[in-house]
């Protein structure tokens, strides 16, 4: 893009901020933008992805699971994308989770989570343990977030649709780690998205800075003593970045700034970003859940949903759904059963009572009640790995495209009943096999022609 498209007030401010680097910064707007994807290590290793996806991938230095690709490769149009093998993500945006550094067993909040790039990166690093609460204040965006959580095979996440001010009343000093990827003026995205230029104004920058301050204050109340908080934006504005962090520490002297970094496109291969890491004073103590794992109680009519137990679910998974006993045990481990309409979810046991929360996804959807029978949920089946099942159907590229489009596919006539469908080692969903045909159960709302 041409630097001439940039607002004069923005250029004047950047010249003052960058000084001798200003010319190099402006020249970067004439460079081609870079493209990135992140390997979903919940579904496979980075080496497995490289061998399965027929494009050249080169490493992003600040994220071990991140890679650059050529803009002509279009990996978003490949069945492996629909299988959740990777997430299309701007390379600089991968930095915040690397700085947060979540690990197995952590209880983590992604406070401004849509569309889900950073949440699914957190989930992969949790590796199925601990708890991830992914929150988004805008309802339509929370649904997109939930869909991406599902596609990436995340089992231990709860998706909420709450205002941060209200959310903090449910989680006082609860989280080990919090990511605040705050809504911002989007200056770092000008090269990527020229529409952001038309939406920019100095007034909007000031408005964003004030809103970000309020979000940070809410996050502070939800972080445990000794916990880590990472604040990130995709803007260059000091008012939204450095000044906001400085003001926050003045308001919260129990927080210390550990590090901060500005990502400028003339310095790195990526768009504009800012990441700051803060630690709250005190000693971190791990969360112990005290919520009982009682059978769910559905609203309205009494049906099988209101009676099912964890043991019932285990029997269904191992009997009808071709899931190995050990894998079924892992899926059910550290969870409680939650009824959500006609759907049965496994909610991480570390999650407090859901009552009163606006919940979009209360965990892993495993079953759907069809009255006289249970059917497997797409969320469950797309989360499966080949080593977790006793039987499956593995398809090539063409059949994978047919399946994702909603068509039937052929299989060995000996295969009967509910069956997971894989491309390479990645699950793309499930169907019901009979007489050498797999009847398609790929969700109608997700079907696309690739």
Task: Describe the protein's architecture and organization.
The chain is α+β, with helices and mostly antiparallel strands. It folds into three domains: 3-280, 3-Layer(aba) Sandwich (Rossmann fold), CATH 3.40.50; 288-373, no CATH class; 391-450, Archaeosine Trna-guanine Transglycosylase, Chain: A, domain 4, CATH 2.30.130. It is built from 15 helices and 21 strands. The protein has helices spanning 8-18, 22-27, 46-52, 79-82, 95-100, 117-126, 139-151, 164-167, 195-198, 202-222, 242-251, 310-319, 325-332, 378-382, 397-404; strands spanning 35-39, 58-60, 63-69, 86-88, 107-110, 131-135, 157-160, 175-181, 223-233, 255-263, 273-280, 335-340, 343-348, 359-361, 364-369, 374-376, 393-395, 409-410, 417-423, 426-434, 437-440. The strands form four sheets. An eight-stranded mixed sheet has the order 10-11-9-8-5-6-7-14, sandwiched between helices. It has a five-stranded mixed sheet with strand order 17-19-20-21-18. Strands 2-3-1-4 form a four-stranded antiparallel sheet. Helix 10 (202-222) packs parallel to helix 11 (242-251) and helix 12 (310-319) runs antiparallel to helix 13 (325-332). It is globular and about 70 Å long. The two termini are 29 Å apart. The model is unreliable at 292-304 (pLDDT under 50).
Layout of strands and helices, then pairs:
Layout: H1 8-18, H2 22-27, E1 35-39, H3 46-52, E2 58-60, E3 63-69, H4 79-82, E4 86-88, H5 95-100, E5 107-110, H6 117-126, E6 131-135, H7 139-151, E7 157-160, H8 164-167, E8 175-181, H9 195-198, H10 202-222, E9 223-233, H11 242-251, E10 255-263, E11 273-280, H12 310-319, H13 325-332, E12 335-340, E13 343-348, E14 359-361, E15 364-369, E16 374-376, H14 378-382, E17 393-395, H15 397-404, E18 409-410, E19 417-423, E20 426-434, E21 437-440
Parallel strand pairs: 5-6, 5-8, 6-7, 8-9, 17-19
Antiparallel strand pairs: 1-3, 1-4, 2-3, 7-14, 9-11, 10-11, 12-13, 13-15, 15-16, 18-21, 19-20, 20-21
Helix pairs in contact: 10-11, 12-13
